[in-house]
Amino acid sequence: MKNILIVDDEHYRHDFILSLIEKDSEVSICHAYTYNQAIDALENAEVAFDYIFLDHDLGGNNTGYDLCKWILNCKMMGYELSIHDNSFFVVHTMNPVGAKNMYQVLLRVVDKRSIFNSTFNDDKDSWFSEVVRQLCN
Question: Per-residue pLDDT averaged across 5-16, rounded?
C-alpha cells in the first residue's frame, strides 16, 4: 500500500493527480487543501506518507515553503511526523522562486534523491504526468 498526501489549494490538481493513478493501484490518499490541513495530516496520520505532493501557493497566509520550514523545525526538535526517511517529496508549483526555496529546505529533511522539484505551466506537462505514474502505480 502506498500512502500519498496531496497538498494543494486547487481541487482540480488533486483530481488530475488522481486521474493518473491506476484504478487497481493499492494507494491511500489524503487530501490537504490548506497549510493547516497539511499540518493536521502530518501530525495525525496513522501511517507515514510515502509520497507527498506539495504546491507552494496554498491560497492563504501560509505557503508550501512555510510548510517545509515547519516540517524541518519538527524534525530538528525531534517531533514525530507521518513521514519517514524514504518519503518522497514532489514539489509542483508555477512559482519558480517558491519551488527553489522549498527544495532548499527539503534538502535538510530528506536525501536529495527523495525530492522531485520543478515548476510547470500546465498540469498536463508530460514530466509531471510521468512522475505521478512512476511513483504511484
Answer: 92
SS3 66: helix
Hey, where are the domains in the chain? 2-136
Report which of residues 15 and 25 the model is more confident about.
15
Fold of 2-136: Rossmann fold (3.40.50)
| Rg, Å, the chain Cα set | 14
Residue 93 — very low, low, confident or very high, per pLDDT cuts 50/70/90? confident
For the chain, the first-to-last Cα distance in angstroms comes to 10
